[in-house]
Amino acid sequence: MIPVDKALQLVASNVSLTGVEDVALIDCLGRVVASDLASRLAHPPLAVSSMDGYALKAADTLNAPVTLTQIGESQAGGGFAGTLEAGQTVRIFTGAPLPSGADAIQMQENTEANGDAIKILESVPAGRFVRAAGMDFGIGDVLIKAGTVLGARHIGLAAAMNLASLPVRRKPRVAILATGNEVAMPGETLGPSQIISSNSFALHSYVIAMGGAPTILGIAGDSEEELREAFKGAMDFDVLVTIGGVSVGDYDLVGKVLKEVGLKQIFHKIAMRPGKPLLFGKIGELTVFGMPGNPVSTGVCSILFLKSALATMLGMAETDTPLQSVLLGEDLGANDQRQDYLRARLQSGPDGAPVAMPFTKQDSAMQARFAEADCLIVRKPHAEPIKAGQRVEILLLRGSLLSL
Predict the structure, then answer these.
(1) What are phi and psi for residue 291, nearest 5 degrees?
(2) In DSSP terms, which residues pair with 112 in a beta bridge?
(3) Taken in order 203, 204, 205, 211, is the CA torsion positive or negative?
(4) What's the alpha-carbon Rg for the chain, to the nearest Å?
(5) How far apart are CA 14 and CA 266, in angstroms?
(6) Do 86 and 105 contact (CB within 8 A), yes or no?
(7) How far is CA 3 from CA 123, 220, 280, 293, 296, in A?
């Protein structure tokens, strides 16, 4: 068995960046930028008003109150074409261009209008309520870096930069293959010893949340012939994820057949719980994960290792998932040689601080508790016993690329 940290290093060092494709901006939420993005225009492109009021020369208001003559109007999308002279003012609205000759805005609440005679009740300094040209950003400014996962705010910024499409990393194509005579698809009539292939659907969702493009290949039975035939359909993908058949039972044939079709095994078995039997390797350029059959084991391995692989393939600027420190809600005993990932619920303590409450039962087949969990308590190998109220490290069960 190898340690978790070593396994993560091997995964990241054995996958390659996907290619680049140009995608319409409207479809870029959750995509990863492939190169730095520079603005094609300034924002705002010219000086504009941040208030409804009157554009004027600040010097004309030094001895306010003072009456100025309104000579026109400036509105968003339709500016005043003339030039402002001393003693003159232009009615202006929020977002409208600042007229030539004006250097300040007095908001309408501090004015009194009598036809074209506009009484300015208070003085204003130069620049008041004026958004200068390029105040936000200028032409050529690099505002979105390569490796950025695009959230909703990035999409709005890119639109303001006048970018109609963006260069993004192609989503890794992930083939998902369940194995075993005992599994069937949801909705099928189950035999006496069969169970539902829930892992296939969980993995499909994991891959989407992690930025990939999943395809479920179905179920291959416990025979070498079925497995060989199924593997043929996965060779054009970037990643193959198999489910089950990687342990040491008589019908655990996945590893054997993978090696026969060219797998270069990089590691098999990790010092962790759940997820010990994970297999990782390559068939040419195809990255292969042999997931354990138990659903929690598959889930934890996906959150740790499949996520790391896809993030590296996408060139994400930050591929690590940082651990957080919280209070422990119940005593935990000493740990053995494997790194533990304990399912837990987060609760609010007496002072409002988060408290991790580990579930009493941690069996790797218990999907309901896994779905209920907010986090995984991470315990290093050979960790000493720990009391409630002490701090533990947790991994939040989050990580979707779709974000605000």
Answers:
(1) -80, 150
(2) 119
(3) positive
(4) 31
(5) 9
(6) no
(7) 70, 30, 14, 21, 19
| 361 contacts: CB under 8 Å, gap ≥ 6 | 369
β 111-114/117-120 pair status:
antiparallel
Q: pLDDT class for 162, splitting at 50, 70, 90?
A: very high
Mean pLDDT (whole number) for 6-13: 97
In angstroms, rounded to a whole number, what is the distance separating the alpha carbons of residues 308 and 286?
16
Neighbours of 250 (CB within 10 A): 6
DSSP 109-149: GGEEEETTEEEE-S---TTTTEE-TTSSB-TT-EEE-TT-B
In the predicted model, is pLDDT for residue 250 greater than 70? Answer: no
> To which residue do tokens 């054997």 refer?
256
* Euclidean distance between CA atoms 18 and 312, whole angstroms: 9
Contact at 8 Å (CB) between 187 and 54? no
Task: Tell me the pLDDT tens digit for each residue of 10-36.
Answer: 999 999 999 999 999 999 999 999 999
Which residue bears the tokens 């936000």? 136
> Measuring CA to CA, which residue among 278, 309, 306, 291 is closest to residue 198?
291
Written as one letter, the residue type at 343 is R
User: What per-residue confidence (pLDDT) applies to 320?
Assistant: 73
CA atoms within 13 A on the CB side of 404: 0
As a whole number of angstroms, the distance between CA 193 and CA 74 comes to 77
Q: What's the pLDDT tens digit per position in 259-307?
A: 999 999 999 999 999 999 999 999 999 999 999 999 999 999 999 999 9
How far apart CA 227 and CA 249 sit, in angstroms, is 16
The sign of the torsion formed by the CA atoms of 210, 232, 13, 290 equals: positive
In whole angstroms, give the CA distance from residue 221 to residue 32. 37
Rounded Cα distance between 163 and 178, Å, is: 42
* Cα gap 274→356, rounded to integer Å: 19
The answer to which of 39-48, 49-58, 178-187, 229-238 has the lowest mean pLDDT is: 178-187
Query: What's the pLDDT band for 236 if we cut at 50, 70, 90?
Result: very high
Is-contact 17 282, C-beta < 8 A?
Answer: no
pLDDT tens digits, one per residue of 170-226: 999 999 999 999 999 899 888 888 999 999 999 999 999 999 999 999 999 989 999
In angstroms, the CA 296 to CA 1 distance is 19
Cα separation, 147 vs 210, whole angstroms: 14
